[in-house]
């Protein structure tokens, strides 16, 4: 959760009119602050590492960088920065790969500013947002929920250690302290497990960890 309740946002869109329209709408929100704008993919990479925003709002039509690859790169290097993808109405085929690559929110263009503001707030709180008609059940039905044994075989020994402690009720910071690793390392391990297990949020990961713990009791 962002410190002091203020959500910092990096706004990335190729078209200046799009950036200005989004900024005008977001500037009226007391709990959201745009800290920088990026007109292309290279600027996104530079600014996201320089500023470490809470949320990256990314127009999938960004220039000079494949948007799906950009999402994966940002998510891999800065897992704490949550990503909201903004795409055309006919971008449904991109939805599943976008979320698999690390986006936490998906909003189609033309739905107004309210869904985007909702997405920013929800992903900043650590959850997943999909604008209707999509929902988390849609993604789970597409990916399939992993069985406990099949899921565990995809994890490294260190990831299994983290999962075991999460299943016993420890939070990420306590897990890091108990294993003698950095908090950022623990977050990265959690994000890696979410990708491997096709889980959409840390709440899903904790639920899965408890299933594992109960099955081994």
Structure notes:
The protein has 11 helices and 6 strands. With 217 residues, the chain is α/β, with parallel strands linked by helices. The protein has 2 domains: 3-141, Response regulator (Rossmann fold), CATH 3.40.50.2300; 145-216, Arc Repressor Mutant, subunit A (Orthogonal Bundle). It has a 6-stranded parallel sheet with strand order 2-1-3-4-5-6, sandwiched between helices. Strand 4, helix 4 (92-101) and strand 5 (105-108) form a beta-alpha-beta unit. Helix 3 (67-77) packs parallel to helix 4. It is elongated, with a radius of gyration of 17 Å. The two termini are 32 Å apart. 30% of the residues are buried.
Quick synopsis:
The chain has 217 residues and is of the alpha/beta class. The protein is built from eleven helices and six strands.
**Which fold name is given in CATH as the topology of the largest domain?**
Rossmann fold
How many E strands? 6
Number of domains: 2
How do the helices and strands follow one another from N- to C-terminus?
Answer: EHEHEHEHEHEHHHHHH
For the record, the CATH class of the largest domain is Alpha Beta
CATH superfamily of the largest domain: Response regulator
Mean pLDDT: 82
Distance between the termini: 32 Å
Major beta sheet, strand line-up? 2-1-3-4-5-6
**Poorly predicted segments:** 144-150
Strand count, sense and barrel status of the largest sheet are: 6 strands, parallel
Question: What is the structural class?
Answer: alpha/beta
Total helix count? 11
């Amino acid at each position: 959760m962002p410190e002091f309740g203020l959500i910092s946002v990096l706004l990335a869109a190729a078209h200046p009119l799009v950036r200005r329209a989004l900024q005008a709408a977001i500037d009226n929100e007391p709990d959201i602050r745009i800290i920088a704008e990026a007109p292309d993919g290279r600027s996104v990479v530079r600014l996201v590492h320089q500023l470490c925003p809470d949320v990256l709002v990314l127009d999938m039509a960004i220039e000079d960088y494949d948007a799906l690859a950009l999402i994966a790169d940002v998510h891999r290097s800065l897992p704490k920065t949550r990503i909201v993808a903004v795409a055309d109405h006919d971008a449904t085929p991109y939805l599943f790969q976008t979320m698999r690559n690390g986006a936490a929110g998906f909003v189609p263009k033309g739905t107004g500013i309210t869904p985007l503001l909702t997405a920013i707030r929800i992903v900043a709180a650590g959850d997943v947002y999909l604008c209707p008609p999509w929902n988390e059940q849609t993604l789970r039905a597409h990916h399939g929920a992993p069985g406990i044994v099949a899921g565990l075989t995809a994890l490294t020994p260190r990831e299994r250690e983290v999962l075991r402690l999460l299943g016993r009720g420890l939070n990420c910071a306590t897990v890091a302290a108990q294993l003698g690793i950095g908090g950022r390392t623990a977050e990265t391990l959690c994000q890696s497990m979410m990708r491997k297990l096709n889980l959409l949020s840390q709440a899903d990961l904790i639920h899965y960890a408890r299933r594992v713990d109960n099955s081994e009791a």
